[in-house]
Design goal:
This protein is of the alpha/beta class. The protein has 7 helices and 10 strands. It is globular and about 55 Å long.
């Protein structure tokens, strides 16, 4: 009899523990994790999987927190609207700037972007200050953090493009004199378009920006803390050189 009572008690305790864990996991799992195609930070590999430097970090966090939700790769404009206007959305990789600071909650950094102005190798433009760049037409991808930063600095000469390929092609076709992009993006688009690297030169270093995971403002602080703690653990345990503090 005592044995039966003990077994019943253990079963009830186990059920209670499982329900407790389920409730915790339900909280952490109540999230959409979004990203865009931005090689080599995040992209679809030859196996049809979402891959990349930033994806590696996020996947490690997901695994550490036992999150069952999968990463969704969609267009940047849509992902940004979802994170801005809906509950429980995480979006990576996003540059953290003054304009965005109060619109999201942040975990990171998970990597670093070095942004510059590039020109054709035959172009004799010489820029000694960022202010001088206002004298030239510049192609850049719309809604990107570094594009917004220049617009906020009074740049009215930026031709906003849908993607890196379009922005690069405007430079190559001489529709613009300069192309604003990052070290990560230009390497990928030049390889993809099979354009020799010597044909494009960096003319001016604009900034070094860190990118983060951005969360909806309504996402609970208690869960933000879990993501932060997990990222700290991952940085400590793994040699992820592309994360620069």
């Amino acid at each position: 009899m005592k044995k039966a009572i003990l077994i019943s008690t253990l079963i009830l305790v186990l059920i209670s523990v499982l329900m407790f864990l389920k409730n915790i996991n339900d909280g952490i799992n109540d999230i959409r994790i979004l990203t865009e195609s931005y090689p080599p930070l995040q992209y679809i590999n030859e196996k049809g999987e979402i891959d990349g430097f930033a994806t590696e970090v996020v996947l490690k966090i997901i695994d550490d927190l036992n999150i069952s939700q999968k990463i969704e790769l969609i267009e940047w404009d849509e992902a940004y609207r979802e994170a801005l206007g809906k509950d429980n959305v995480a979006l990576f990789s996003m540059i953290r700037n003054a304009e965005r600071e109060d619109k999201f909650k942040w975990v990171g950094p998970i990597g670093t972007l070095k942004v510059g102005l590039y020109r054709n190798d035959f172009n004799d433009i010489e820029i000694r200050s960022l202010e001088e760049a206002k004298n030239y037409k510049i192609s850049a991808v719309k809604d990107y953090g570094y594009t917004e930063n220049l617009i906020n600095l009074g740049f009215e000469n930026i031709i906003q493009c849908e993607n890196e390929k379009e922005a690069l092609n405007k430079l190559l076709s001489r529709e613009v004199e300069l192309y604003l992009t990052s070290n990560i993006a230009i390497d990928d688009v030049m390889k993809t378009e099979n354009i020799p690297f010597y044909s494009i030169e960096k003319e001016f270093n604009v900034s070094i920006s860190q990118f983060y995971i951005a969360f909806s403002k309504t996402y609970p602080d208690s869960l933000i803390k879990k993501w932060e703690e997990s990222l700290k653990k991952i940085k400590k345990e793994h040699n992820l050189l592309f994360i620069e503090e």
